[in-house]
Amino acid sequence: MTVATVLEPKMPKCWRQETKPHKFCPGCGHGDILKALGTAIDELGIQDRVVFGCDIGCSLLSWDLFNCDSIQTHHGRTTPVMTGVKRARPDRICIAYMGDGGGYAIGSQHLVNAASRNEKILVIVANNVQYGMTGGQMAPTTLPGMKTETSPYGRDPESTGNPTLGPEMVAAITPASAYVARGTMANLRQLTQMFKKALQNQIDGNGFSFVEALSACPTNWRTNAAKTWEFVEKEMTKYFKVGELKAPAKKEGQ
Amino acid sequence: MSKLVKIALAGEGGQGVQSVAEIITEAANEEGKEALYIPNFGVEQRGGVSIAFVQISEKEKVGSPKFEKADIVIALSDRAVRRCAQYVDGNTVFVYDTAIEGVEDDLPKGAKKVIGIPAIETAKNELHPRVFNIIIMGAVIRSTHVVSEDQAKKALEDRLGYKFEQDPKLRELNYRALERGMQLVESQL
Amino acid sequence: MADKPIQGEKRMFMTGNEVCAYAALAANVDVMYGYPITPQNEIMHYWTRLAPKHNRTFLQTEDEISAGFTTCGGVMSGKRCFTATAGPGNTLMQEAMSMAEMMRIPAVFIIQQRGGPSTATVIYSQQEVTMTCFGANGEGLRVVYSTSSHQELFDYTIKSFNVAWKYRFPTFVLGDGYQAKMRESVTIYDPEVRGIKMVDTYPLVGLPGMPGVDRDPAHLRNTYNTEEELYEVVKDLVDAYEKMAPEIVEHSTMECDDADVVILCHGIVSRAAIEAVRNLRAAGVKAGFFRPITLRPFAKDALRPIAEKAKKLLIVESSQGQFAKIVTDALYGLTTPMETIFKPGLGITSDEIVNKVKAMI
């Protein structure tokens, strides 16, 4: 056991100390989002029951972040792998963690169908409006006019469509027992509460849970701290409204 | 029967050739013989000719599931007559229904024997259209001896027993169809 | 605990797809994941009818990609799981199969080959040999049983679960549309009455105890950072595979000792070959027959002396040389003349083989 010093940042109990500091770039949203997730896991006391799955893309760097059993899968395939685990072991609490490419592009059929079947898993999509690990290409979530490596003159909705609205889509195709929300790294207290409700929904055996978290990629955005925050808080929220879209009513006695 | 008998049964969808193949091979299996049955299936099956490939062997396991030439071909529609010419050689007995029109020129020339039987007519006028395929079954077992009449009846009982229970007349109808089928080929073999 | 799905043993007359479903039940499979594709559909149909009576489950997924990955998830949970597919479904499922190769996931896949390339026929072929043995971006670290009868479908489906869980490599039962759809006799049995013990399964994730306190967490991955790191991982995989190979490799032969022509084939084509050898021998022609039962690993050591001794070899397959590639690789350096019957997507009868052999001598 290391002696705690004032310099050591406070981290969730379910994070694995041996693999810290984590592997994300400075300013990346993943660390904050996963911290909120870790806090939710701690507060619910479910660390020993969680099976955590991560995708390809920067999300894969979380493969050894938790002191939880974890599977790093293929691009877009985290949802079916976690579905497979949950179906075989319904007593586990399954979390599929991915980026917006994994959730809304290459893995969209899995998201749509897991949601339609009301699979009792939690899917988290970190939305940073582009592909991070491969070097900043356009994603389904890229904002209109936004420049990326594959939309160097700015995303033109005429030829490439409008940003995918994940939670809105999931809310439209899930029954009332699903939990659907969009949070943001800019409000970690709220995001933690969303994760807690989403996990509780799975624990209660109600149905599918889905949380999109607005995230930042200053590396590919080429933004400084101030610009990064401004983009997350002001630009992204113009398209992506933060809040709960679907929250099952509490069961009696809760 | 000889050591291995190869049968091609062909007709239109709804004529029941596949269930005849199923019942005969199940009966042969019950008798301790080695039977193999495979339908033609696939996209072609929809709206095409339905063919059942049946092989029954005294003892040895059957080889490849489809064959080039059959010992007996039973063709129950004009399309089936034309489609099945490919399975006929000098050792093949070719059986067709005499109610099929316009196939006179398509009947195989090189067959060992070509037999026309009035199965469709017999079903319609004497028995009931729904036992048409049981008449065919009778014709098959009499021409090939792949299963005994008793075993064939037992197989019918196994398959349709629950219906026979409700309506014993049905049993009688099916047995008569089987016997009539046997008679139809009897005199011509 | 529900009654055993199969008590003792009994002779049945059924389709190969039904045989696979019964074999999975007999093998104590917990979950099947699957997506409809001809000619494997009836495996799901029978499974969904039989499974609930024995507390087993089924999930119909959105596609074969998902069927492959959900199967991997189920297996990593410590359950005996399988899926079944064919043709374009096999293509889609290669992605999950390569993950199973890399992460040593003991998943079982039943493949009922159909005609290709592309959608092609839903009927029959042996054109999924290369893909099933060596598909995806991997090294072919898979076990592949090529069956030829309903009895083998039953026996090897059960064996696949045991080999998969004992050695932890993805294991395949390679059938075809003919085997899927035809009916023939088969004796199904409770593995226990034949002295077969099902290899215990165990979870790779969802282990007991508090991770980080009672034990280390299971952190399973398939992504590596450096060439050297990956090289070590793959080297270990290859070593484990090569160590296993002699323990599981299987083949069968017939009349090879004095054969002038040895026929080489696999799977259902062996039925035509056996018939052909019988007929040829009866006609005084010295024909023999060699058949690998495992296409991966391949019975190279058994084949080489036979091939060396034979005057001629004849390779017969319902594809354009996919099997021949495996054979010629194993026979490198030998000079025995070789001829072929390649019939991609088409069934092969004993008459064709007999005529060819007669023309060769």
TrEMBL record, chain A:
Residues 69-212 form the Thiamine pyrophosphate enzyme TPP-binding domain. This is 2-oxoglutarate synthase. The lineage of its organism: Bacteria, Bacillati, Bacillota, Clostridia, Eubacteriales. Gene3D superfamilies: 3.40.50.970. It comes from Heliobacterium chlorum. Keywords: Oxidoreductase.
From TrEMBL, chain B:
It holds the Pfam family POR. InterPro entries: 2-oxoglutarate_synth_KorC (IPR052554), PorC_KorC (IPR011894), Pyrv/ketoisovalerate_OxRed_cat (IPR019752), Pyrv_flavodox_OxRed_cen (IPR002869). PANTHER family: 2-OXOGLUTARATE SYNTHASE SUBUNIT KORC. It comes from Heliobacterium chlorum. The keyword Oxidoreductase applies. SUPFAM superfamilies: Pyruvate-ferredoxin oxidoreductase, PFOR, domain III. Coiled coil: none annotated. This is 2-oxoacid:acceptor oxidoreductase family protein. Keywords: Oxidoreductase. Gene3D superfamilies: Pyruvate-ferredoxin oxidoreductase, PFOR, domain III. Residues 13-183 form the Pyruvate/ketoisovalerate oxidoreductase catalytic domain.
UniProtKB/TrEMBL annotation, chain C:
InterPro entries: 2-oxoacid_oxidoreductase (IPR052368), PFOR_II (IPR033412), Pyrv_Fd/Flavodoxin_OxRdtase_N (IPR002880), THDP-binding (IPR029061), Transketo_C/PFOR_II (IPR009014). Keywords: Oxidoreductase. Residues 23-245 form the Pyruvate flavodoxin/ferredoxin oxidoreductase pyrimidine binding domain. Gene3D superfamilies: 3.40.50.920, 3.40.50.970. Residues 259-341 form the Pyruvate:ferredoxin oxidoreductase core domain. Coiled coil: none annotated. Signal peptide: none annotated. This is Ferredoxin oxidoreductase. The lineage of its organism: Bacteria, Bacillati, Bacillota, Clostridia, Eubacteriales.
